[in-house]
C-alpha cells in the first residue's frame, strides 16, 4: 500500500508532539493522552482507539501490537515499532522519534519534488502553444505591415 503525503504529515506531526511531550518529562502514556485528543485525522483516530483500550485497563505494549496488526500502513507501523521498542528495551524514545520525523520529512520533500517535476511539464504547455506564438505574432506583425507599406 502506497503511503500518501497526508499520512506522512500526520505521522510527522504526531511524532513531533510526542517527542516534545516526552522530552518535557511526561511518560509515554501521558504524552499519548495529551497529544492524541488534539490531533485530527485518520491515524489519530486509530490512536484514540488505543487510548480507549488503555483507559479500559489494557497494557500499552499489547495495545500497540493490536494497532499494528489492525493497520497495515508502513508509516504508522514504523511509529508503533519505535514506541514498542522503546517500551520493551528502554531505548531513548525522543531520539528515535526525531529520526523518524527527519526521515519522513525527507521522504515528503522527495515526493513533492517528484510531483512538481511532473507538473512542470504540464505548466510549459500553455507557454509553448499559447503565449509564445502570440508573442511571435505581435513581434512580427508590425514589421510585416511596415514592409508592406513601403511598396
Structural key phrases:
151 residues, mainly alpha, 6 helices, 83% helix
Portion in strands:
under 5%
Indicate the mean pLDDT: 89
**Approximate shape:** rod-shaped
Total helical elements:
6
Span from first to last CA? Answer: 71 Å
What's the assembly state of these chains? single chain
By secondary-structure content and strand pairing, the structural class works out as mainly alpha
Write the element-wise H/E pattern from the N-terminal end onward. Answer: HHHHHH
Task: Please indicate the count of domains.
Answer: 1
What is the strand tally?
0
> Radius of gyration, rounded?
27 Å
- Describe the largest sheet: none
- Poorly predicted runs are none
The proportion of residues forming helix, as a percent range, comes to over 70%
Describe the structure.
By secondary structure, the chain is mainly α. It has one domain (5-112). It has 6 helices and no strands. The protein has helices spanning 5-23, 28-35, 42-55, 60-70, 74-89, 93-149. Helix 1 (5-23) crosses helix 6, helix 3 runs antiparallel to helix 4 (60-70) and helix 5 (74-89) runs antiparallel to helix 6 (93-149). The longest helix is centred in the last third of the chain and has 57 residues, at 93-149. The chain is rod-shaped and about 95 Å long. It starts with a helix and ends with a helix.
Structure in a nutshell:
83% of the residues lie in helices and 0% in strands.
